[in-house]
Amino acid sequence: MRKKDIIEAREAMKGTYPEILRKLNALIAIGRGRALFTAVIYIEDNKTLTTSQKQYILNKVEAAQHECRRFLYIGWRFVWQLPVEMRDGVAYMDTFRYIRYLPAGRQQFRLLLKLIKMANHESNPDFIKSSYKKDLYYDAYRVLRNYYIK
């Protein structure tokens, strides 16, 4: 993940609802898929948005995946792009912030399974030994419990 993308993403999520929509449209128009996906992670930082406005923005970003050829629309790919030292808890927890806003169902479940599979992958030995693995399983359980065990 380039620093430029993170800066663009943070800037896109600042301001009022109409300003955010304008910035997202600009990112879609110039095909800044990575910045667009990262912007979704920072959606919680904006306290002025209502839940329905957040949901609308997320739906818009989901629809934009077809327009942005380089769009990293699913969380595990985003994590895979990070440098190894950043692939630990922060990346995974940010991905879970994104998962929480996905519509409950198959897509959310598949993303959780991919994250767990990736956490167990032998190319990621440091993660397997770390305490973040427990956090990942706990978060997976928590997210699934919230939607499926009611």
Structure explained in plain terms:
The protein contains 9 helices and no strands. With 150 residues, it is mainly α. It starts with a helix and ends with a helix.
Describe the secondary structure blueprint for this structure.
Blueprint: H1 3-12, H2 17-29, H3 33-41, H4 51-64, H5 75-81, H6 89-99, H7 106-119, H8 125-129, H9 132-148
What ranges have pLDDT less than 50 throughout 5 or more consecutive residues?
A: 68-94, 100-104
Number of strands: 0
The helicity comes to: 55-70%
Average pLDDT works out at 61
N-to-C SSE series? HHHHHHHHH
Distance between the termini: 37 Å
Strand-pairing-aware structural class: mainly alpha
User: How much of the sequence is in beta strands?
Assistant: under 5%
Give a quick rundown of the structure:
This protein has helices at 3-12, 17-29, 33-41, 51-64, 75-81, 89-99, 106-119, 125-129, 132-148. It is mostly helical and 150 residues long.
Which labels suit this protein?
9 helices; globular; mainly alpha; 2 domains; 150 residues
